[in-house]
User: Fold this.
Amino acid sequence: MSCDLLITGVRPYGGEVVDVLVRDGIVESVGSGLEAPDGVPALDGGGAVLLPGFVDLHVHLREPGGEESEDVATGSAAAALGGFTAVFAMPNTDPVADTAVVVEHVWRRGVEVGLVDVHPVGAVTVGLEGARMAELGTMAASRAQVRMFSDDGRCVNDPLIMRRALEYASALGAVVAQHAEDHRLTGGAQAHEGVVASRLGLQGWPATAEETVVARDCALARDAGARLHVCHVSSARTIEVIRAAKAAGVRVSAEVTPHHLLLTDSRLRGYDPVNKVNPPLRTAEDTRAMREALAEGVIDVVATDHAPHAVQYKDTEWQAARPGMLGLQTALSVLVHTMVEPGLLDWRGVARVLSERPAEIGGLPDQGRPIAEGEPATFALVDPDAQWTVRGEALASRASNTPYEGMRLPGAVVATVLRGRITARDGKAQE
Ligand code: DOR
Ligand code: ZN
Assistant:
C-alpha cells in the first residue's frame, strides 16, 4: 500500500498555508508550491488546520462479547472519522481483557482493520472483580505490549491492590488509569447528587466518591513513585486534589471527557437515558472548572470515554439503562465549541490536549509528534469553519447513543492520515 502522499493547502497548528510531501509514511518536506512526484496521490487540504493525529486514552470498543453495540471495525471507523490515529480500548469486555490472549485478540483486530492504532488496556484485577490482581506482566510482554492498566467501568477500591498495581505497573513502565468511584458511596446511584437528582427522585452519586479516591491514589502513587492517570474527572473538587498532588511532585495525569466539558445534569429533566453516564453529568460550576483546568493544564487531556450501547440497553427506563455515550466523532467539535471558540485554547492547545499529552501518557513514541520533516505523517485535518448537525444514525458506530442528537456543532474533521495513509476523508472511513 502506498504511503506516499502530497497534502496541499494546509495550515499546521492554524498557521501559514503550506504543502506537505510524505514519502514512506514520513514527512519529507514542508513548504509552498510543492509538486507531487510521479504516481504520488494528492490530498487537497483546502486551507484546513493540520494537527497531529488525535490519541484517545479512553474508548470502549466492546469486542469481544459486546458486538451488538460496537466492534473493533466499527469503532475504528468512528475513530478515524473523528481525527483519531490511536485509541486505548478499555478491558470491560466479555471475556474481560485480563489475559494476554484477550489483549492480543483486540490488538490483532486493530491491526487487521488498520484504520487506527488500537492499544488494548489490560484489566488490573481478574474479571474486574477487584479481588485478585491480573497478570500485568504477561499482558505487558504480549504482542499487544500493554502499557496501560485499568478496571474502568469499576474502581479499584481495595487500597492494597491499588498499591501493588501501581508498583507492578511502574516496574513495567506502564500507567494505572483509575475510574475513581468509591462504590460504598455510590451504591444505587443514578445521577449527580444535587438539586436535580432530588427533584427527579433519583439516588445521588456524590462528588466526594471521586475526590476521595483520587486523593488516596495520589498518595499511593507518590509512595510507589508510580504513574497514575485519573479517568474522566467530573467534579471541581477533584481538580483541586490533582492540582495539589502535581504541585507536590506526584506523577499524576488526568483526563476530561467532551461531555463533562459541555453537558450538565439539567439535561436529566426529561429522564432520557441517553444522558445517563458514569461519572454523571454534574453542574455548570463543574463544567466551568473543567474548562479552566484543561486550559491551565491541571487536566492534561481530553479523552472521549466513547461508550456505545445497543438500543436495547439505552432505550429503556432510566434505572435500567446502561451508562455511557458515544464520543469519537463529536469530540473535536465539542472541544471547538467549549474551548476554542471562547478563546480558552488555540490550535496549539488542541494539539496538546488531543495529541501530544495523550501520546506521552500512553507511551506512544510515534504519535503526537511535531509536524516537521523526518516525523511520521500522522495527521488530523480540521475545517474550523464547518458547521454540522449531529445525527446518531449517520455515525459510524454500530450504536447511536449520542447526547448531541440534532445539535449543530462547529468544526469538522475533513481527513485523517495515519503514517501517510488516508484513513478517513470527506466523512468516509477508507478501508
Ligand atoms: O458511562 C460509562 N460507561 N462509564 C464507565 O465507566 C463505563 C462505560 C461503559 O463501559 O459503558
Ligand atoms: Zn470509567
